[in-house]
Design brief:
Elements lengths: L12 E4 L2 E9 L12 E7 L18 H12 L4 E7 L5 E4 L5 E3 H5 L8
Antiparallel strand pairs: 1-2, 2-3, 4-5, 5-6
C-alpha cells in the first residue's frame, strides 16, 4: 500500500502525543579535528519550550524533506528504530518494530508495514 501519512505538518512542525517536534536542517557533527560537516541534512528536534530545542533527538534523516518526514513518522508514531551493524540484502538500512520484526527501510518508506485501511 502506498505511504499515507498519519501526521499533520505545519511547515516543519508536528505534534505527537501532545509533544511538539520540529524538522531542522543543519550541518552534521564535526569530525575528530573539529571541522563541521559541510552537508546540511534534516534532524528531528524535540521542543523544550523554545524553538528549536538545542538538543536534536534523531540521527540524520537525510537531505530529502519528504523522506525526513516519513522517517520522523516511523520513529514517533510507528515506533520503529534503526538497526545498527546490519544491512539489508540490497545494502540499505534495516529497521526494527516495537514487536521485534526487522524489515528493510525501503519497504517501510513505501508503507508496506501498514495494514490496508
Amino acid at each position: 500500500m502506498p505511504w499515507k501519512t498519519l501526521l499533520h505538518w505545519a511547515d516543519d512542525t508536528t505534534i505527537v502525543d501532545g509533544r511538539v517536534y520540529h524538522l531542522v536542517k543543519h550541518a552534521g557533527d564535526a569530525d575528530d579535528k573539529g571541522r563541521p560537516d559541510p552537508v546540511e541534512t534534516w534532524y528531528l528536534h524535540d521542543d523544550d519550550g523554545g524553538w528549536p530545542a538545542d538538543m536534536r533527538c534523531s540521527f540524520t534523516l537525510g537531505g530529502n524533506k519528504r523522506v525526513a518526514r516519513r522517517l520522523t513518522e516511523l520513529l514517533l508514531v510507528d515506533r520503529w528504530e534503526r538497526v545498527y551493524g546490519r544491512r539489508a540484502p540490497d545494502g540499505g538500512e534495516l529497521w526494527r518494530s516495537p514487536a521485534g520484526e526487522v524489515r528493510p527501510l525501503a519497504e517501510l518508506l513505501r508503507g508496506e508495514h501498514r495494514a490496508p485501511a
